[in-house]
Here is the input.
Amino acid sequence: MADENWKRFASPKAFYPLAGKLIPWFLVPTIALMVVGLYMSFFTTPADYRQGEAYRIIYIHVPAAWMSMWLYLCMAFYAGLGLVVKTRLSSMMAAAIAPTGAMFTFIALWTGAFWGRPMWGAYWVWDARLTSELILLFLYVGVMALRSAIDEPHRADRASGLLALIGAVNVPIIYYSVKWWNTLHQGASVSMSKGSEMAASMLLAMLVMTFAFWAYSFVTTLMRVRSIILERERHADWVTDVVDSGR
Here is the structure.
């Protein structure tokens, strides 16, 4: 019975009101975690003994980089689900995730450049980690551009879904680039196998910012998928009722 209830939400009509109810549950934590995380990042954590105050940009940079990779995998998963199972909502979710993922990728590159200038003496180097992250941004933009370039929604879903799946191979390349090649980019300070090399207060601040970005991703994705549902299903009677009622 529970399985049947979950399958019901694969329908855009059933998922639309559910997404509306979930948004406030993620919006409040987003604001709270963002405020707390930024305060901890800039006021309660100590300065790094090597990098001084300039290191604080990692509290934005690292969570943004994590989210850029995680959201791409989520987008590719939903795109693959849409191609295999042919559920309309899956392709809509993939489309909804892409802009937020692209934004976090841009933030990761931008903050990385500002961190690199005092540490490396240059805003940009053709480092393996930086280059593969830049390719990730191009993939996000390519998926969105390809979807927009095709008028017929089903063809757009298939084409952009295939590109998203092919591009997923770049995510492990980003993650392992510092191990596979000699790079300027430092290795991971936080590892599932080795634990953390950071001070406890620094790690806590970074995790709070990560959860803030994670909650923000839920909010933007749910808001965006509701808009996509209304656009794609605009000829359905239930959409007319929703628009007329202002829900």
Q: What stands out?
A: The chain is about 75% helix and 0% strand. The two ends are 29 Å apart (CA to CA).
